[in-house]
Amino acid sequence: MTDALGWRLKLGVVTPSVNTVVQPEYDDMRPRGVTNHVARIHIRDWVVNNADDFDGLVRDIDNGVDDAVERVLTCEPACVVLGVSIEAVFDDPKAGEAIRERLRVKFGDELRLVHAGDAIPAALRAVGVGEGPIGLLTPYQPSSEPHLRSFVEHCGYELQTAVHLRCPTAVQIAHTPRETLQRELKAIAERRPRAIVQFGANLAMGRIAAEAEQWLGLPVIAVNTATYWHALRSNGIADQAEGFGQLLARC
User: What's the superkingdom here (predicted)?
Assistant: First the structure.
């Protein structure tokens, strides 16, 4: 359902309470006549030192997804965007599908969910990368890599290299310096993957990825850009915009 300000599209967004990047990045990409309506998944600011901590963080997020979706559905959005990336691929490359089906059982078959598990491969195909090696940049611990590798291979790609920034807490992900992201992108690009994909929705990567495409000469897919782009295109919004890379500017 549309309204006076969201006369083209209303999007419901669910993202963790510790995330300070999804909301401003989505709003920066928002076309005229599209509105974003955010519900928070309440979690604590986990200290992540090992695989058990990381697993606990992901489970904590998953436990709060349904309540956040229930809240945002009261504003009657056209679809719900899952503004958290690892949740859509954790334990199973089809984890996002399982979340969608769980929510449909609870809230009705008409519920539409956009998540990174669908958005990332769609974005890669849109920029002309249908197969081959890709590099990953994440804020996670190395224990996340088996989950990400399984997802990448399920999508038909080869995980050539992965850099994990080992951010100490969920909130601290958003504090990652621009210089760190630039340095690690250059290091990944030295192996000449077909594309670089960034996971971690609390990593402020949208505009940096767009700049990096210019000096690396290859596609750099930021997860928030891919997910929001997929939400727009899935709802018939074809507006193009500069500043967030070739995906939003040309595809």
Answer: Bacteria
